[in-house]
Each structure stands twice: as C-alpha cells, then as structure tokens.
Amino acid sequence: MKKLLTVLTLTLTGVLSANAGTWELSCSGCHNGSLAPTKTTLLKKYHSKREFLAAVRKATEVGKMPSSLPFESAADELYGGKTAETNTTSKATTSSDEYSKYKRFFKPLPALPKIPADNPLTPEKVKLGKMLYYDPRLSRSKLISCNTCHNLSLGGDDNQKSSIGHRWRTGGRNAPTTLNSGFLRVQFWDGRAPTLEEQAKGPLQAHVEMNSTPKIVVRRLKEIPEYVELFKKAFPGEKDPVTFENVVKAIAAFERTLNTPNSPFQRYLLGDDSALTKEQKEGMKLFVKYGCIACHNGPVLSDGQFHKFKWNKDLGRYRVTKNPKDKYMFRTPQLLNVAVTAPYFHDGSVNSLEEAVKIMARKELGKEISNEDAKKIADFLRSLTGEVPLEARVLPQLPGNNPE
C-alpha cells in the first residue's frame, strides 16, 4: 500500500494542475445559457468592462449573485484580452511564494459539475428542487426534510454521529455533506448510488430516515396546486410531470448548484498568494509529502475510489456487493468544507480534525505524525471552507395546504 501511494503521489505531480482561468472556474458553469447568459451574450450586451461591472454590482445588490466572486478578474479576461491559460501561467511564473510549487498537485473547483444529458439544469428545475429539498411533507411524518440531515447552514450535514430519522431511528453512519456532492463519482459511503438522482431516492424511502414511498410523495404533491404548476414548468411537455422520478431529478438538479467557491485555498490556487497563512501553506506541503494527496485529489479532494478502512464492525461496500474483497472498503470522502462537517469517519466517532488526521496517517499511510504536523495539516484543511451559495441557504416560501 505504501509503495502504491508513493507511485500515485509521484504520478499526480505531472497530471494535476491549475491552468484554468477565472471565467472557466467561477463563471462558466452558471453562464451556460440556461441558468445565466453565456459569455458571448454578455459581450454583445455589455460593450465595456465598466458596463459589465456596473451590471454585476446591481445584480449583487439585489441578491441575484453572490458578492464574493472574483468579478474584476473575470472582467479582465472578458474585456482585457487575457486568456485563461496565459493569465494563470503568468501568475505562477511571477510568484515569489516558496510553496507555489505544490499547487500542481491540486485542481480548482469548477463552477458546476458535469450535468447529465437526461437531467439538464434549468432555473425552473433548480427552483423546484430547492423547495422539495426543504419540504418536510415528503417524509411520512411530515417532519423530516432533506435539509434536516443535510443542513445548508451547518455545512450540508447535521454535525451528528448518525442522523436521527423516522421515530428517532438512526442509520448507523454519518451523513455526508451535500455540498459539492455533484463532483463525486458515486454517492454514499459504500457507493451504492451512482448518481445524485439515485441517491435522492434512498433517504426518501429508508425506514430509518424519511420512511416515505413514491406513492405517498406523488399523492401529496399532486394535492398541492402550486407544486403541480411548478412541475409543469420544470418538466415542460410531459403529460403527467408530477412523478417520483421527476422529484429526485429536481432535487439532484438543486444539489448540483450547492458548490462552494471562494475558499481561501481556491483563491490561493487562482493566484492570490496571500489567501493562505504560512501555517496553512506548510500544512499543504505536508499533505502532499505524507501522501494524503494520493487518495484525496481532484477538485473536491476525493479520488472517488474505495479504500480499506477497518475501523469498527461496519463492513462497508461489502454490504452492497457481497464480494469478500470489499469488506471494510469505503469511498474516499471529499475534504472541501471538512472543518465544518465534524464528526468524522463513516461512524462519526471522531470530533477533532487534528485527531482524524493522525488516525488516517497511521491507518492508511502507516505513519505516525506529530501533533505539530497534524495541526498544520488541519490548518490547511480549514482553508478549504468555501461559501455556500446565498440563494441556496435562504429558506424558500413553500406552497400551502396540508395533504393527508
């Protein structure tokens, strides 16, 4: 295992880089013609950088856009003639930061994950999905919503060892965050759901969670006229759009917008050398040198693979595949916003980030690391905390009516 991790770390040296520009990473995902105007449309509408930034300021003032995005840098690329690659390469070349060489191991977070062809992202669908995410009437008891266990004010989880569901039951595993979940290759700790759509079906029906059924969900939604109209707008042309499949499609569409840009580390990768403290930069270096990067890589610092972590009696992926080789195998968790998603591990048994770092180094890398190094790595991990989109965490006004 140690040799494999060493090889992977060395391989990653050459394949992970941050050469994309501000527009591609922070803007292009939403400005795709569906959620917001494309680059071409904007250039036709606003003839100068000044006009563009004036429109941006107006949009941020009324809450249509988050104020923290790098608008000036994006405007420079749009109107200043700088290409994304040239701009980023120039910053890397002129940087005096001694730690900048470690940037090549990491990948900035794009604005949006890949959108599946059978569930295109539209404003109408995202709006509907947000309302369904927050609506407890999808659960049998009418008390539990997606946001109950994946609270967008608490880092996309509930900070519990194991979430409390229907009739105070628990499922035995820690709730992963929904933030940036669209970038994951598979969902759940054991990877039993390949997509966000399939993942959404699970908690809705699990007896220890929302304990509902497709029939209950659809019947209740059809009894609320406002929802019927919203489904018609989100799924135009369908004769009967209020279906369980469309419910999970809408929730998944909303979840694909729950991405957290503008963390200190994202700003650092994009050229702001002052975004991290020296301790955090030192932690980044140790994160690479100890080999953490072998499994925790890519835009959300998860390779999406399954690795053996024998921690308690939970058999992990084996419960899905029944393959003996999958005993104690778990999907690599993402690390974005890890500082606000304690407790850690699949059973939520560790509350300290520093302690989690030391345990993982010992069990996965075979290395005992000092308290000082663990603190530096934990400080680096705290720089991965980004901003939850304002629109996502503002409670929606749900339609009235109380269906049986």
TrEMBL record:
One of its GO terms (cellular component) is periplasmic space. Binds 2 heme groups. Its cofactor is heme. Residues 1-20 form the signal peptide. Keywords: Electron transport, Heme, Iron, Metal-binding, Oxidoreductase, Peroxidase, Signal, Transport. The keyword Repressor does not apply. Its main location: other. Heme c 2 binds at C292, C295, H296, M360. Residues 124-255, 278-385 form the Cytochrome c domain. Binds 2 heme groups per subunit. Heme c 1 binds at C146, C149, H150, H166. One of its GO terms (molecular function) is heme binding. The keyword Heme applies. It is found in: Cell envelope. It comes from the Bacteria. This is Cytochrome c peroxidase. It comes from Balnearium lithotrophicum. The lineage of its organism: Bacteria, Pseudomonadati, Aquificota, Aquificia, Desulfurobacteriales.
